[in-house]
Amino acid sequence: MSLVITHLTGGYANVPILHDLDLTLQEGEVLGLIGLNGAGKSTTIKHLLGLIQPMKGKIELNGLNLSENPTAFKRQIGYIPETPAIYPELTLKEHLQLTMLAYGLDEKKAWPYAEQFLKAFRLEGKEDWLPIHFSKGMQQKVMITASLLAQPALLLIDEPFTGLDPLAAEVLLNALTQLRNDGKMILMTTHDLAQVKDVVDKFAILNHGTIEFCGDLSQIQQHYHLTRQDDFAQLYHILSQEHIR
Amino acid sequence: MRTLAQKRLQRNTKQSMRYLALVFNDFFVLALFFLMGAALFAYMMLLKRLPMNLWFYKPLIILILFLLLGLGDAVTLLESADRQFLFPQDHDLTSYLIPMLRYSLIFPMMMILLGAGLIFPFAGVKAEIPIARYAVLVLGLLALKYDVILEKIQAFSFSKSVRFWLLPLISLIFLILCCYSNFWLSILGLFALLGYVFFQRKQGLVLGRFDWLKAVQHEKKRKHRVYEFYGLFTDVEEQAPVIKRRHAWDILLPRQLSRETPNTFLYRRALLRNPEYANLVFRMTVFAVLIAWISGSWQWGLGLDMLVLLLTVEQLLPLIFEFDRDLMYRSQPISTRNRGRELLDVLKSVLLLQWFLLVLFWFLIFLNWRIVLLSGGLLLLWLLGVIYIYLPIRVAKIEKKRHF
Asked: Which domain holds residue A142?
């Protein structure tokens, strides 16, 4: 299993945000995509989801190409957006049922798996409610549960901890560790390096739409000459100065 | 603040005019004209037949006029962003709210004058309320409405404690006084009322700290009601539909998940819970029943109902693209290749449900099994033609048009 992005150039309205981006992810690997606002993190994810068309380059997931077989390609991807994208017409239970239908999951097997997250996220008993009336944090828990339920080959997460309380963040981190152990690939954008450092295998620093550096935390600290342990604000200061230059 | 109020009022008037032009289109005005004509003729006939001065006439007039007082609401045109940007403007809010108060009075006062004018023949001739006393009563109603709106605006202040029972009580006392006493007592009542209104006005519009949250929420609800009215006749772009859970309607959903595809799953729930679609089906079904009833003959009823069902399904076709802007719909593995056919599967159920309801009502209207069986059979044949011949062509066309 692998995700291979080669020479990807893309953006919005013919204005490229990503320039010749190369990225590879192997089975059981977790990659943290980091960078300043506007560096192209979410744009990369949108390209992987097929929400925008690449201007150049290729994206392959387990040998499948998005443009050739979009449904089969998407079946291998789960997505947790930064802002919850709830279907207003569906109840919590129906969100999970729709995920089962879309991913072709067996309802009998999928339910016990979903229930363990509903319990951990304290959503039990709310299955019949419309999540559109939930708080943002609770809506995010619905999104996470639905995405984890699919157990996709590649999980894409945009700012995973936005709006989550510390307990829910812990549940998510545990689930991500489990997925990694099961050989799934995870690509997440985040600013909170300290929170994810135990789950993430390597970080890719995105700057001006290209991968500037890729490596584990110690390599990043070495490369950017970070003097203060676990103080990643320093890294953002360096990136910001590079950005100005 | 005054300039801001005037700008917003201008924008609101422009928007209202645009929607009113759509609501009162030529067809609707013509229908309304005939309907009003028929109603006024029936009213005139009724007045001729009614005996003089029965005991319940005056209570009935009091009830109608009391209900008329309830029409209209305080318009503030406040927006959510005002909570942030106008928050430090409490002291200057009066100059914003005065034009709003005046604007708020236009619709209810028109309705009071219209309602009172319509009731006048009944009140004057049958209930024997003299014209002078009736005029006092109408003036009092206008003053009362002014006070209702005034107090509604004052209630947006933290320091104003609203006594919700007081104004309805005053209104009732005044109406009883005008209907049952003499002219001079009515005049006295009117002056007392004007004194009360003057006292309320003297207090000012903003009494202490302004409750922004309450005022903004109130305006949101008011706008929602107005848009709902427009929404009965036309699409309202400013109004996001409020999805309703409607537990009882779950009975119409298939029990087994295996019988669904992601698209049919979504379409069914949109039809049941999105008022834009659910209300359309409801309205058109009621319209079909009414038109069959009014037409008087089963042949006309059948023909018109065939048209109504076709119009219903035509208006439901945009449902095919309903989820295209949903992020999850676009990122989840949901195939759009066969969704036209999948929508037709769902619409088939809607049309058959409408057919069943219509046949049921036809039986109640015509009370003749033979007619109901014949017209029901013909309507079913028509529906099958619509479902299996007409709709697949229409859906293919719509999808092709969207694709290019």
From this structure: 85-151
